[in-house]
Amino acid sequence: MLEYPAAFLQRIAEQLGGEYPAFMAALAQPSRGAVRLNPLRPQGEAALEGELGDPVPWEPWGRYAAPGFKPGEHLAHFAGAFYSQEASAMAPARVLSPRPGERVLDLCAAPGGKSGQLAAMLEGRGALVSNEPDFRRAQILRGNLEKLGAAAAAVVCALPQQLAQRWPAYFDAVLVDAPCSGEGMFRRDPQARAEWSPQRAAGCARRQREILAQAAAMVRPGGRLVYSTCTFNPQENRENVAWLLERFPDFQAGSFALPGVGASQDGCLELWPHRIAGEGHFVALLLRRGGERADWAAPAAPAPEAKRALALLKGALPGAWHAPFAQWDLSLRGEILTAQPRELPRLEGVRTLSAGLALAQVGKGWVKPLHALAMAAPPGSLERVQAVDREQALTFLKGETLVTAQEGWTLVTWQDLPLGWGKGVAGTLKNHLPKGLLRR
Ligand code: SAM
User: Is 134 in the pocket of ligand 1 (CB under 6 A)?
Assistant: First the structure.
């Protein structure tokens, strides 16, 4: 039997009453792994055949993993076909459900499970800003979004108050998946159990209010805010929601239901491990009263040098170029050609790790497509592709060359999933995977 803090158990017994024995019995069971399939890679499900179990009831792209599934070692993971995500953690983004075209902010975003889900829901239209104040974690977030091909996104590293000053009432939808006391993860995470104390949980509640106040300021009138934690602690959950509604009278509780979980009450819904197959989570939906969003800014005409760079890139990568990013604003900064959705806010003065899709590095008369483009190009959009088997894929991921019949920049794929760029020269496909991604 795992050790749980006595003060935690006492409070849970008060919260749950007659359900307490069922809760304790659930904690004695192993937790179930799950993955969220990436809808940008519809071919990915076939690559995972036999390794996934039942669907997650509240997330159409969610599947429980078969016992023994090792997500990190899978080639389909490298190719961004899925993201390993605890089932309950799929609920908050589903409640926010951004629609294509919306402006979305994920304020506490690393490592990026929910950001990846939000970006997929946008289908490349609108824009997601993913923020993480811890720089090392923000780098992981950037890498995860790149892997998933989430191009209509910017990754920034800032404290919420810095962003709220710059972007008041800018977003249609804001997610605050707040740092919390982690009670819902106790079954999986012995460190969360060891670090827990009532004082620490109270400290989390205070910090969450600070974050929530800034988040509320960035929701446009008529927009929505989802607040989530992975704790059962009412101070951090319902009491913080009540605090926000009192402090910001232009917000009201929204109502929603999640299949297999149930309906919200006063805008809030708890996911309990004895009622569902998932860990503990809390989700609240808050709606800002008011009107419609102002119209979009007019698209900026691309500078001639950016247009020339794009022409060079299209020449090097023949294909259909029908992806949403082909319509975005182009910019050439130094040697880097980027396409940015125009729904992104102004990023000047904000520490930015990526903004839109970095397409290519361009010099005088030469062009080198960047890895992010390999991961964001829609399946079937490029003409020059080298399909490899598992053994060749593992060779490629080590940074080695392959034999090829292709000349020029070529997308290397395994089971129709993108792995990265190679360049065919006289029968040899040179490896252009970024060094940081090589598997030794
Ligand atoms: N949403 C993430 C996901 O789905 O992968 C998990 C987020 S985790 C629960 C909370 C994150 O908030 C951590 O990465 C933490 O570094 C970050 N954080 C800590 N303090 C913060 C603050 N004051 N404002 C915003 N984020 C903060």
Answer: yes
